[in-house]
Amino acid sequence: METLNSAGNGTWDADGGKCVDISIVVPLYNEEESLPELMKGISDTLGEMGKSYETVFVDDGSSDASFDVVKSLRKTYGARVKALRFSRNCGKSAALHAGIALACGGIIVTMDADLQDDPKAIPEMVAKLGEGWDVVSGWKKVRHDPLGKTFPSKIWNAMTSVVSGLRLHDFNCGFKAYRAGAAKNLDIYGERHRYLPAMAHWDGCRVTETVVPHHARKFGKSKFGAWRMFNGAMDMITLLFLKRYMKSPMHFFGILGMLLIGAGVGVLGYFGVMWVITGAMRIRPLTLLAVGSMVMGVQFISIGLIGEMITNSLQGRRQYSIRERLE
Ligand code: UDP
Ligand code: MG
């Protein structure tokens, strides 16, 4: 069952086609050593749960033998292993997007490939979904990562909580469980995998978190460097803007523009009156500033109008998302 209509408006009542109970989506980039152990862990846990499942591996352009390993897993586990291979490294968000699109389970679990996430946590996450949540996000309460990573992450999580209005300890944890429709409705691209709980929350999903065990990386090294902080901050600004002003860019740029023009007119008006009264025409730094302010104001309004034109041409896209349907 498709969850997005042609206009891009979402419905989450769809069950993703439900070919299996649970789809596990695993983005991976050069993780050849970890995959067999990961697949065994998934198979053991899901076997104990007595649920039908599939594992969707998305090889994000690995240059090692990861995809050969996936192929050999496919031989061992049969149709329980599905896989996609990107022709180049497109990023974790793209990999998640492709994997979620391919997944057909009623529940979709995403997890990292590097054995830092433990499949044993899946039953608890799935049980939480059963309590009525749409998204259950993992919280790595005890983390086994270097301090250079955990400390900035604390600050970032606190900021994201404030900005998004959703209080979570750990937005960026790769380990999450979704009702299929909620996952398929997410517009994941760029570096947005860091904000998925916030995006789901803004879309009206019921989002919660649960503590998950976290292990130190066993093989290889982290694929994200220091740039992650800069990229993350830029994405936060974009998302905030899109969330608040996507439908009416003029509300943002228009107010800025009017304020600047107002300030310019005020200052020039004052000098104009002084000119009439005293006969002295003054060009002071403040006069130049006032003119500059008016020019910038006109530009902001123009940007707002262009924004409105773009929004207008996208009408019909993502205006609503449906939780339930009676037909
Ligand atoms: N990953 C990916 N594409 C990338 C970078 C990472 O698919 O461009 C995968 C990676 O293989 C792992 C997950 O995303 O399965 C998380 O990456 P990593 O463990 O390097 O992140 P960290 O745990 O350091 O946040
Ligand atoms: Mg990792």
Plain-language structure description:
- The protein is of the alpha/beta class and 327 residues long.
- It has 10 helices and 9 strands.
- The protein has helices at residues 35-49, 66-77, 92-102, 122-130, 147-164, 180-184, 196-202, 227-245, 249-278, 285-313; strands spanning 10-11, 20-28, 53-59, 81-85, 105-110, 135-139, 176-179, 207-211, 321-322.
- It has a 7-stranded mixed beta sheet with strand order 4-3-2-5-7-6-8, sandwiched between helices. Strands 1-9 form a two-stranded parallel ribbon.
- Strand 3, helix 2 (66-77) and strand 4 (81-85) form a beta-alpha-beta unit.
- Helix 9 (249-278) packs antiparallel against helix 10.
- It starts with 9 loop residues before the first strand and ends in a 5-residue tail after the last strand.
- Bound molecules: uridine-5'-diphosphate and magnesium ion (MG).
